[in-house]
Amino acid sequence: MDISLRAVISPAFYSLHRQIRAGECRAVLLKGGRGSTKSSFASVEVILQLLAHPQCHAAVVRKVKDTLRTSVYAQICWAIDALGLGRYFTRMVSPMQVIYKPTGQTVYFFGLDDPGKLKSLKVPFGFVGVLWFEELDQFAGPQEIRNVEQSVLRGGDYAFTIKSMNPPASPRNWANRYAREQQPGQVIHHSDYRSTPRAWLGAPFFEAAEHLRRTNETAYRHEYLGEVVGSGSAVFENVREAEITDAQARAFDRVYRGLDWGYYPDPFAYNECHYDAARRTLYLFGEITARRLGNAQTADLIRARGRRERITADSAEPKSISDYKAFGLPCVAAKKGPGSVEHGMKWLQSLDAIVIDPQRCPDTLREFLEYEYERDKSGEVTEGYPDMGNHHIDAVRYALESVSTRRVAKATSR
What we know:
Blueprint: H1 3-6, H2 14-21, E1 27-32, H3 38-52, E2 56-62, H4 69-82, E3 89-93, E4 96-100, E5 105-111, H5 115-119, E6 127-134, H6 142-152, E7 160-165, H7 174-180, E8 186-191, H8 198-201, H9 203-215, H10 217-223, E9 239-241, H11 246-251, E10 255-260, E11 268-276, E12 281-290, H12 295-303, E13 311-313, H13 318-326, E14 331-333, H14 340-350, E15 353-356, H15 362-370, H16 391-399, H17 401-413
Parallel strand pairs: 1-7, 1-8, 2-5, 2-6, 6-7, 9-15, 10-13, 12-15, 13-14
Antiparallel strand pairs: 3-4, 4-5, 10-11, 11-12
């Protein structure tokens, strides 16, 4: 990396910058906490993209127009000066634009409270190929993002999109769901202030962060580390999102399989798990989610995975279990019984960690992260486990039924 760029890009972004420069991604989603310098990085990359693609213009979008001048406009101006390019750009605020003098390329700024201007955007030459959404979570949802992309990124053979945000606290927030989706050509990057040079932020920033860490760790994790800490009613606080490699999956020697029957609108849910008893850690590395498929079709999907371990299925459909046996699958009914739901859920909650691979098991990860206790009218958490959005959770609970009940039996016999 150029020495001058090291002076304006935090070390947390070196690798990502190299990926972008090499053309290895078409979009980046930057998430993190205060002081992570993700917005500074985004503004630098917008300018570098213009320099690298002379036919491109850029658009920078926020939800509210009135926030543009003191946020993204000021940030783009900072990037120009930090890169030592001030004499090459003309800056104006009415209309709000930044123009690269040698080519006439322009950075446009829009708020979505005035969507007409964005839809009617016409450029004097070339096309808009660079698009930055700042404070992604403030937008209305994925459809609004798609609408902007479809309106702006057209007419050219190149497009690069940047989305930046501080993740909201709730896993159910649309922006957190969006950040968990695996989209072609997109890199998801997380950063926090701890990788930022201290001189950039100043001693008072680090002192304030340390004070909050000591006095309110949850708020610290959300505000400064950019973690999705939940709203205080998460059922599973032991979920860890991590890659499980092919080598790891092949080495798992205690694999359990479970499924929850479904057709439509409730899905068929199947999972493959490994339980490390010594470390009290559960690894979820395989899933199938299907709708509108019959037993023969779902059985084919399972057989294609090549595993032979016993499958423990919801006992509510004995005919489906019989079908699976006829198809040659080792399928047995979960014992269930009074209190089995509460017992299985509490056992899962008691584990030191539930590790879920986001690429192998995206639907399972979403369920475990978003599963929350219900609240009454006064906002108090109610007892019991909601019977919604838990299809893969049930499949995992069935898969581990023999393990969880065996350990209870051992404990009660002592």
